[in-house]
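Dear Dr. K.,

Following up on our conversation at the group meeting, I've run the structure prediction for DUF6598 domain-containing protein from Digitaria exilis. I'm pasting the input sequence below exactly as I used it, so you can double-check it against your construct before we proceed with anything downstream. Let me know if the numbering doesn't match what you have in your notebook.
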Amino acid sequence: MKVESNSLDTRLGTVEVMFVVAKRAVEAAISVELLNMGEFCGEITARTSSIQESVVLHDSKKVAGGAIMTCNGGGAIQLLRRVVAVSLKEKLELTARTGDGENKSTVWFTPRASGGDEVEIVCGPIKMLVKPSVVDQVLPYFGLDDVSNRD
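The predicted structure tokens came back this morning:
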């Protein structure tokens, strides 16, 4: 797959839009919960097995209300984006990394037409539950060229 890019000029400035056309894709809704007491200050990203560029799902520096996610266990991490599209032929990689860059944890998921998995990961002193689940399957388009009339 190839990452494409277009510039969009608006009244407020120019926005660069990057995208990939994914065939036989599913929408994966991602949730991340802190399982133990502690603070998570860092970044959570997603990418697919064929695309090297990552999408930022959580960045402590950009979350409203402060740079550190504090939790006493069982708290959801606020994500900047929680839905990503993944081809059924690809794998989804989710990576959590601490703000100081010293700790990193990566997990790979294989998308299915329905359902989801959940995995506990450890990033530094923080234990998280990562749950990507398929919310919608984007079906391929079939044109009417293939239809024949029968008597």
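Two things stood out to me. Residues 21-134 form a domain with the Immunoglobulin-like fold (CATH 2.60.40). Residues 19 and 100 are 29 Å apart (CA to CA).

Best regards,
J.T.
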